[in-house]
Amino acid sequence: MRTGSTKIFLFHNTKIMAAVNLRKGFVLVPQNLVAKLQRCYASSKQSKTNTLAAVGESIAAKGFLRPHKPYAPSTDAAAKIRAVAASLQMANGGDQRQLKDMEEKFKFLAACFQELQHDVPNSQVHEMATVGDVIAFYESAVDTTVPLDALKRIDLPENLHIQYEYLRFHPDTDTKFNGKTAFPKSSTLVTGLKYRRKYEGHEAKRSWP
Questions:
Q1: Has the keyword Cell membrane been applied to this entry (predicted)?
Q2: In a domain, 16, yes or no
Q3: Of the candidate ranges 127-141, 146-160, 179-193, the one whose mean pLDDT is the lowest
């Protein structure tokens, strides 16, 4: 190493390990390390224990109506709401009773939640102006099913077919083309952290270069 030079050369036995250029800001690393860094994707499906926490994380990651819980109204939901209003001495005025007093409104909605185990979201509290509005809310179902999954419940037309799961080519499991691919040098990589545990990737053998 020369005094005043911006280049540092490191040697280990007879192999050059790295050359660092401090002025230009790049580093040359060993070739075997580069090969390891390039293998940052999944070439095989990652195994993971199917636990309750893992299932919960998977559902939460879907991103559809995550703040809401599914709710199916009971047939006597309206009667229960009116009974709650009567217990709080709010029966005067019937379903048209105004909820102008904030403290009274809070107690009423809290009691309705305790009775039906379904709360009014903060974004809809301002819409609850009367007892009738609260009844209408608790008579409305909340379905958090992803729209694509909802299609599985219905009978599709005969000329319509939906492939719900991904079809990824792998020569060991392919039965349609006997493991032959139109792109022999193209790998089927699973780069996502979420789906690499679900789908197995395939690293194709490539000739040099």
A1: no
A2: yes
A3: 179-193
Q: Which domain holds residue 108?
A: 77-138
Query: What order of strands is seen across the sheet that includes strand 26-28?
Result: 7-12, 15-21, 26-28
Q: What's the whole-model pTM score?
A: 0.51
What mean pLDDT value characterizes the chain? 76
> Contact, 98 vs 107, CB < 8 A?
no
Q: Is residue 96 domain-resident?
A: yes
Model confidence at 73: pLDDT above 70: yes
Q: Is the peptide bond before 209 cis (omega within 30 degrees of 0)?
A: yes
Could you give the C-alpha distances from 173 to 73, 111, 167, 177, 179, in angstroms and in order?
46, 57, 11, 10, 7
The CATH code of the domain that includes 121 is: 1.10.1200
Reading the block at residue 43, the tokens are 């070439």
CB 98 within 8 A of CB 116: no
Contact 202, 188 (CB under 8 A): yes
Residue 196 in contact with residue 42, Cβ under 8 Å?
yes
Task: Establish if 151 belongs to a structural domain.
Answer: no
* Length reported for the chain: 209
* Geometric angle at alpha carbon 177, from 164 and 204, rounded to 5°: 85
Q: Is residue 164 part of a domain?
A: no
| Total number of domains constituting the chain | 2
Cα gap 66→145, rounded to integer Å: 10
